[in-house]
C-alpha cells in the first residue's frame, strides 16, 4: 500500500488506502460471506447501484462462479430519479438506465454499492427495487463504510470501515471506469 500523500488533479491531498491486491482480497472476502449466508442460489440475485456498485456486482458474480460453479442473475440500478436531492443536483439529470432482467419478487437481493455514507443512496435504491416487486430479503453489501449516517441504514457486509471527517472524500477507482483499481481518501490541503 502506498502511504505517501499525493496531490490529486484537483489540488487536494490524496492518500491511497487500498491498492489493487487489497481491493481484490476484500471483494473475495465479501464473496465468501455471501456464499456462506446464501446457500440457495436459485433464489438470489445481485443488484449493483450504478456506476461502481454495478462493476462490483459483476466482479462478485465472477468470484461466485469461480468458487461455486454457479452464476446468479445480476441487475444494474440507476437511482437518479429516486434521489431526495434531485432538484439540487441538476436541472436535467443524466440517466444511465436500470437493467434488471429477472423477477425481483420473492428473491433474496444482494444490493451492492461502493461507499456507504449518509444512507440516502441506499434508501433511494430500496425504493427503486420495491418498484420492481417485493423481494424476500435485501442484503446490503458495501465496499467502504465511511460513517456519518443520516438514516438508520447499515450494511450487512462491509469490506472496510474507514472513519472519515466530513471534509474528506473516499475515491473508489475501478479499472473498468478509471483504468486502475484503488481506494483513496482525499482532503483539502488546508483541511477545508
Question: What's this entry about, in short?
Answer:
The chain is built from five helices and nine strands, in the order E-E-H-E-H-E-H-E-H-E-E-E-H-E.
Global shape = globular
Estimated share of beta-strand residues: 25-35%
What is the helix content? 25-40%
Instruction: Supply the CATH class.
Output: Alpha Beta
Mean pLDDT: 90
H and E order: EEHEHEHEHEEEHE
How many domains make up the 3D coordinates? 1
The structural class is alpha/beta
**Largest sheet, strands/sense/barrel:** 5 strands, parallel
Low-confidence stretches: none
Q: What fold name goes in the CATH topology slot? A: Rossmann fold
Give the second-level CATH assignment, the architecture.
3-Layer(aba) Sandwich
Structure overview:
With 192 residues, this protein is α/β, with parallel strands linked by helices. The chain has one domain: Rossmann fold, CATH 3.40.50.2020. A five-stranded parallel sheet has the order 4-3-5-6-7. Helix 4 links the parallel strand 5 and strand 6. The chain is globular and about 50 Å long. It starts with a strand and ends in a 5-residue tail after the last strand. InterPro entries: PRTase-like, PRTase_dom, PyrR, PyrR_bifunctional. Its EC number is 2.4.2.9. Keywords: Glycosyltransferase, Transcription, Transcription regulation, Transferase.
Topology (elements, then pairings):
Blueprint: E1 5-7, E2 13-18, H1 20-37, E3 44-49, H2 52-68, E4 74-77, H3 86-89, E5 108-116, H4 120-130, E6 137-145, E7 157-161, E8 168-173, H5 175-178, E9 182-187
Parallel strand pairs: 3-4, 3-5, 5-6, 6-7
Antiparallel strand pairs: 1-2, 2-9, 8-9
Helix pairs in contact: 1-2
Catalytic activity: UMP + diphosphate = 5-phospho-alpha-D-ribose 1-diphosphate + uracil
EC number: 2.4.2.9
Family: Belongs to the purine/pyrimidine phosphoribosyltransferase family. PyrR subfamily.
Amino acid at each position: 500500500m502506498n502511504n505517501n500523500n499525493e496531490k490529486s488533479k484537483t489540488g487536494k491531498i490524496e492518500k491511497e488506502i487500498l491498492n489493487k491486491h487489497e481491493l481484490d482480497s476484500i471483494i473475495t472476502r465479501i464473496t465468501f460471506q455471501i456464499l456462506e449466508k446464501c446457500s440457495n442460489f436459485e433464489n438470489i440475485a445481485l443488484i449493483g447501484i450504478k456506476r461502481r456498485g454495478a462493476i462490483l456486482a459483476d466482479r462478485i458474480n465472477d468470484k461466485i462462479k469461480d468458487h461455486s460453479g454457479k452464476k446468479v442473475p445480476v441487475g444494474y440500478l440507476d437511482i437518479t430519479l429516486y434521489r431526495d436531492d434531485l432538484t439540487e443536483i441538476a436541472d436535467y439529470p443524466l440517466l444511465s438506465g436500470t437493467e434488471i432482467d429477472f423477477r425481483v419478487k420473492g428473491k433474496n437481493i444482494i444490493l451492492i454499492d461502493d461507499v456507504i455514507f449518509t444512507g440516502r443512496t441506499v434508501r433511494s435504491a430500496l425504493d427503486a427495487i420495491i418498484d420492481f416487486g417485493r423481494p424476500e430479503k435485501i442484503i446490503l453489501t458495501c465496499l467502504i463504510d465511511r460513517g456519518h449516517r443520516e438514516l438508520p441504514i447499515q450494511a450487512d457486509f462491509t469490506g472496510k470501515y474507514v472513519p472519515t471527517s466530513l471534509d474528506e472524500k473516499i475515491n473508489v477507482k475501478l479499472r473498468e471506469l478509471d483504468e486502475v483499481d484503488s481506494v483513496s481518501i482525499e482532503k483539502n490541503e488546508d483541511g477545508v
